[in-house]
Amino acid sequence: MAVKHELENSLLLDDDGRTRRTGTLWSCIAHIITAVIGSGVLSLAWSVAQLGWIAGPVAMLCFAIVTYVSVVLLSDCYRYPDPVTGTRNYSYMDAVRVNLGKTQTCLCGLFQYLFMYGICTAYVITTSTSMSAIRRSNCYHEKGHNAPCEYVYTPYMLIFGAVQIVTSQIPDFHSIEWLSVLAAIMSFAYSLIGFGLGLATVIENGMIKGSITGAPAATRAKKLWLVFEALGDIAYAYPYALILFEIQDTLKSPPPENKTMKKASMIALFLTTLFYLLCGCFGYAAFGNSTPGNLLTGLGFYEPYWLIDFANACIVLHLVGGYQLFSQPVFTFVERWSSKKFPNSGFLNNFYSIKLPLLPSFHINIFRICFRTAYVVSTTVIATVFPYFNQVLGLLGALNFWPLAIYFPVEMYFVQNKIEAWTRKWIVLRTFSFVCFLVSIVGLIGSIEGIVSAKSI
Questions:
Q1: Which of 28, 116, 326, 348 is least crowded, fewest Cβ atoms below 10 Å from its Cβ?
Q2: 197-206, 290-299, 364-373: which range is least confident on average?
Q3: Region at 214 (left for phi over 0; alpha for psi -120 to 50; beta for the rest)
Q4: Which of 237, 160, 131, 251 is nearest to 191 (CA)?
Q5: What is the rounded distance in angstroms from the CA atom of residue 92 to the CA atom of residue 75?
Q6: CATH class of the domain comprising 22-341+384-456
Q7: Structural domain boundaries of the chain?
Q8: Contact 281, 55 (CB under 8 A)
Q9: pTM score over 0.85
Q10: What is the rounded CA–CA span in Å between residue 331 and residue 168?
Q11: Inter-CA distances, 415 with 32, 288, 420, Å
């Protein structure tokens, strides 16, 4: 009996004593698509409009390539010191800690959790604009396109916040696989609708709008700021380095997790880049210089109104899952740190079982309820103060792109593979990192200028 019990435990537990992982290539692709295809896809037509017909598509392809390089470097750092047989790193910060030390870990944590918090705030903004767009679409359909159909976003932000307070009680990252699959399906749905509406509008217009240099601006300086902001928006739409380890930690092994992650990333990035190019280019081709900042909520499209309503409903459902994808790592970090810091606190560590009629029993923790509720409330409040879609996305993209997607992966690669200074590989990766740093700086400058300008209006 003891041998049988031990055998059963070995089948249920992983190589580190935790619950055995069950993630596959396809669940990994779903997680990646949920993380990558988010609110950023809606701003890509506007970004192409600022950059023009050549620079816009080229910028998207370049960011896709850079993102895959980042994934290749990072996925090999999931285990240390050997990428196949080494000890698992459960989070980005764990990998930075074993490779780069405590100081770099604190810096990484600051960027990572600040960006995750910012993404959740951006998702509150995006959801409110989509919910408002549904009302406006129906209003324009009933009263005509010139009717005064404007609605404030705040009530919709509060509704989304209330939904997230409930869904944030999902225990951990491993428990949201079903939500990621649903969110990935929704992201494909509204991306296809955006592409379809853009293509239909181009056919209806009988021409392809736009130019090589993009939309004109009042001054050269303003044009430069808009180009910088567009680069920040594209940067926001791609990298998912900050949750790569959480996704990789769901994958069963064998095969080695890094091989599955690289294969899943190649498939997911190919699909997302294809959708990005279709949505961005056909959106710009349809509207030219008047391309809205948000393709589906800027109401460049009016009919068929029911299809636009459905697309915006898909966005809302997708962002319900996307919010959890980026908030669960924050929840896990804070709760584990608090439990370790105060191991004897009942408020932090005690769980209580609750059974409701017609529902399975579930466990609650008072600290979890309080902290996660406060987190959701804070993102909702900040979203009501800064409801600027394109500018917020550009700011977040610029802040995340270089430090998390480039700097730390390159530095960890140097350490783990013992790359010596001034070798060919060292020079190439250093140059690559510096160029990406410049892109982040210009994106950050353009987005800050955009927020200041929008706030002063």
A1: 348
A2: 290-299
A3: left
A4: 237
A5: 10
A6: mainly alpha
A7: 22-341+384-456
A8: no
A9: no
A10: 9
A11: 26, 47, 9
Calpha distance 455→457 (Å, rounded): 6
CA distance 1 to 295: 63
**304: preceding bond cis by omega (within 30 degrees):** yes
Residue 76: how many CA atoms within 13 Å on its side-chain side?
A: 16
Residue of 387, 389, 386, 227 whose CA lies nearest to 294: 389
Q: Taking Cα atoms as reference points, which of 272, 266, 247 lies closest to residue 257? A: 247
388 DSSP 8-state letter: -
CA distance 292 to 279: 13
Q: How far apart are CA 166 and CA 416, in angstroms?
A: 41
Beta bridge partners of 362: 354
Strands (DSSP E) along 112-215, which ranges? none
User: pLDDT per residue over 395-454, tens digit each?
Assistant: 776 777 788 888 999 999 999 888 888 999 999 999 999 998 988 888 788 777 777 776
Statement: residue 5 has pLDDT above 50: no
Burial (CB count within 10 angstroms: exposed 0-12, middle 13-18, buried 19+), residue 327 = buried
- By CB atoms closer than 10 A (0-12, 13-18, 19+), residue 452 is exposed
The DSSP result for 326-372, as a single string, is HHHHHHHHHHHHHHHH-TT-HHHH--EEE--TTS--EEE-HHHHHHH
